[in-house]
Amino acid sequence: MLTESIIETANEASRMQATEPTPSEVSHAMGQLIRIVGHDLRNKLGVMKNSIYYLNMKLGRGDPKVQKHLRIMEREIANANRMVSDLMDFALSKEPVRRPSDVKAIVAEALSQASLPDDWKTAISLDDTLPPLMADASQLQRAFTNVILRVVEGVPAGGKLQIIAREHNGFLVVGFGSAGLAIPEENLAAAATPLASTGGTSLGMAVSKMLVEGHGGTIGVGRLARNGTMFVVRLPLLSEGEKKHEREGKHSDS
Q1: 254 residues of the chain, pLDDT tens digit each
Q2: Which residue from 204, 202, 231, 203 is spatially nearest to 217, judged by alpha carbons?
Q3: Of 117, 183, 175, which Cα lies nearest the Cα of 144?
Q4: Domains of the chain: total
Q5: Considering the domain boundaries, does residue 14 fall inside one?
Q6: Considering the domain boundaries, does residue 52 fall inside one?
Q7: Residues 152 and 105 in one domain
């Protein structure tokens, strides 16, 4: 009887295992769930944004305190929308659609999307001779925006965001930092990793890492003068073959 019971238990376990979803099925189901929840959350955030717009028209032109709090609400809605987008990007990663892209335009859009707080200033230094980058501009814009937000998170009292872009040994090097971003030396090596961030930027840095590495690049961290910190994104530029292909494509289009 005992032997038969053991055999029956083993058979039942085998039947249950056969009906369990595979990892790919679980991943697909989670992707579907995240897509549905993300879509619903975006709709609700859209309603809130429209309500803020209405309140701005009715109340925002008078009391400075009302204006201030409406701006805070707008910024937090934008942050929540970015977190939803980050979650969907992280769970439903897509291959980059690469096209020759203007680095300056990507940086400008990333800065616009970051919506810096009022107590922040910017200092931007981008080489005028930067060559085009073979990249998915929308993905890199998202990556750059999240890195900017990581810098802002590290300096709660406000400060100056420094952005530089240079060509170096076949790579585009883009830096985002602040003299006020003081990270201890023992934590510097891990500062660019997602777990070194807090709140919404933790997921954002994970997405940035995924998107940059999808372009064959890296995210690192280095020192600025006066103990400041800069996050450094390195991305491969167009090879000679890609440049030739781009020129031939333009010639055929004309």
Answers
A1: 544 544 454 455 445 444 555 555 555 566 667 677 777 787 888 888 888 888 888 776 777 888 888 888 888 888 787 777 777 776 667 788 999 999 999 999 999 988 888 889 999 999 988 888 999 999 999 999 999 998 998 887 889 999 999 998 889 999 999 988 887 777 777 777 666 555 445 678 888 988 999 999 999 988 887 678 999 999 998 665 555 555 555 555 55
A2: 231
A3: 175
A4: 2
A5: no
A6: yes
A7: yes
- Contact in structure between 176 and 230 (CB atoms under 8 Å): yes
Same domain, 61 and 114: no
Domain that holds residue 74: 23-91
Two structure tokens written together for 18: 């056969």
Looking at 92-199, list the stretches that DSSP marks H as alpha helix, in order from N- to C-terminal side: 103-114, 137-153
Cα torsion 205, 207, 212, 218: sign: positive
Q: Cα 148 to the chain's mean position, in Å?
A: 9
d(CA 103, CA 106): 5
Facing residues of 33 across strands?
Answer: none
Token code pair at residue 145: 């925006």
**Single-letter code of the amino acid located at 146:** N
Is pTM beyond 0.90? Reply is no
Helices (H), 163-221: 200-214
Q: Does residue 177 contact residue 242 with C-beta atoms inside 8 Å?
A: no
Relative to beta strand 159-168, strand 120-126 is: parallel
CA-derived radius of gyration, the chain: 24
